[in-house]
Amino acid sequence: MAIKLSKDTEERLLVSLQRYCANNFDEEIGNLKAQLLLDFCVREIGPSIYNQAVQDAQKVMQEKVTELETNCYETEFAYWQKKR
User: Fold this and answer.
1) Rounded to an integer, what is the distance from CA 59 to the centroid of its chain?
2) Using one digit for the tens of pLDDT, what is the confidence trace for 37-81?
3) Residue 45 has what DSSP assignment?
4) How far is 66 from 44, CA to CA, in rounded Å?
């Protein structure tokens, strides 16, 4: 599944990359270089982050499903047990 960023997110990331390069490398980069760097990061690093996020979400969901067994369980045929 290809990662597609919204236009707003992409623009904010480009500005952030340009600022990062200026602050950490003492190098001003233009929009083209920032776009190429962002494209590389999204294609090369993005899938690993995405897959880890999916695994984290699966783990949380599995924990919630396991909790259903204890939190939402009702004893069956308990009417006569309460009457005693």
Assistant:
1) 13
2) 999 999 999 999 999 999 999 999 999 998 888 888 888 888 888
3) T
4) 35
